[in-house]
Amino acid sequence: MIVAIVRFALPRALTVAEAAAAFEPGAPAYQTVPGLIRKHYLLGEDGMVGGGVYLWESKAHAKALYDDAWRAKISARYGAEPRVEYFNSPVTVDPSAVIVG
């Protein structure tokens, strides 16, 4: 599995409630993304950084989402270019199971 961490600067500090209101409308679009296992939206403690942590079946699935159109959409919506970092996830712990792979 692959974890991708996406970060982007926000144009102003957001509260948790403001971030939820901004992020929630786009959430349903991610429910049908091939290879996406889970996504967590992120807000930095100072409210100035937004982003997400994505758990993917493969890096190919992740890269299929983070194309030029997706980057342009994020840049237009939040006013900053997103930065994507990839990590291998050799072990995942879920409260009900430990998953290797």
Report the uncertain regions. Answer: none
* Rg computed from alpha carbons, rounded to a whole number of angstroms: 14 Å
Helix segment tally: 3
Main β-sheet: number of strands, strand sense, barrel status?
Answer: 4 strands, antiparallel
* Cα shape: globular
Ends apart, CA distance between termini: 6 Å
What is the topology, as strand order, of the major beta sheet?
2-3-1-4
Beta-strand segment tally: 6
Strand share of the residues?
35-45%
Helix content: 25-40%
Query: Strand-and-helix sequence, N→C?
Result: EHEEHHEEE
The mean pLDDT is: 93
Query: Structural class, from secondary structure content?
Result: alpha+beta
Account of the protein in words:
By secondary structure, the protein is α+β, with helices and mostly antiparallel strands. Helices cover 26% and strands 38% of the residues. It is built from 3 helices and 6 strands. The chain has helices at 16-23, 59-65, 68-78; strands at 2-9, 36-43, 49-56, 83-88, 91-94, 97-100. The strands form 2 sheets. Strands 2-3-1-4 form a 4-stranded antiparallel sheet. Strands 5-6 form a two-stranded antiparallel sheet. Strand 2 (36-43) and strand 3 form a beta hairpin. The chain is globular and about 40 Å long.
